[in-house]
Write a structure and sequence with these properties.
With 219 residues, the chain is mainly α. It has seven helices and six strands. Helix 3 crosses helix 6, helix 4 runs antiparallel to helix 5 and helix 6 packs antiparallel against helix 7. The relative contact order is 0.13. It comes from Candidatus Pullichristensenella stercorigallinarum.
Amino acid sequence: MRYVCSICGYVYDEAKQGKPFAALPETWTCPLCGAAKSAFAPEKAAAKQPAAPIHTVASTAQAHGDLQKLSPGALSILCSNLARGCEKQYKDEEAALFREIADWFAAAAPAAEETGVDALAIRMGEDLATGYPTLSAAASQAGDRGTQRVCVWGEKVTAILKTLLERYRREGEAMLRGTDIWVCSVCGFTYVGKEPPQLCPVCKVPAWKFEKIEGRTSA
């Protein structure tokens, strides 16, 4: 049996590895992107993922209407992500404009309330279950390939963050001891390790595009 990582596509082949996937400890992670064991699925099941539902014009319009209800903080994040998308396409002028808009919304946003790891994991789960599929279906209906790509990247980045949260809930500060946190400056993929991956598992940019998160107190 072969198991596929839903984030980077790494294949765990039981025949080659000589060990059943089920026998791996729950602390085992993907050797390529660091995703948790829970991010893997049998190859056949991964190949038969149902397509996103086709939305009608009315539902697409509703999705666009929902964008008007986003908070200043959410709009800041959205514009920041659009800026990074422009950077990926070497559109520096457009990227600068999106960053300026993102900064404006960030300044207008109220102070964020403290939230725990559990609440954050729930919100990420909601995004993966309904948020990204809904937006991706609307983008597909509208023929918006740019938004579809953002959804693909965003879904994978959210999935890896959720698996990192799962590890942190299980291992605590020991997970971060003697290591560093790296974030891809293009898509936001987050990696825990002494060195960043040679290529981003999500957007495929080289290691020098990763930024090390500084200022974390050691455990």
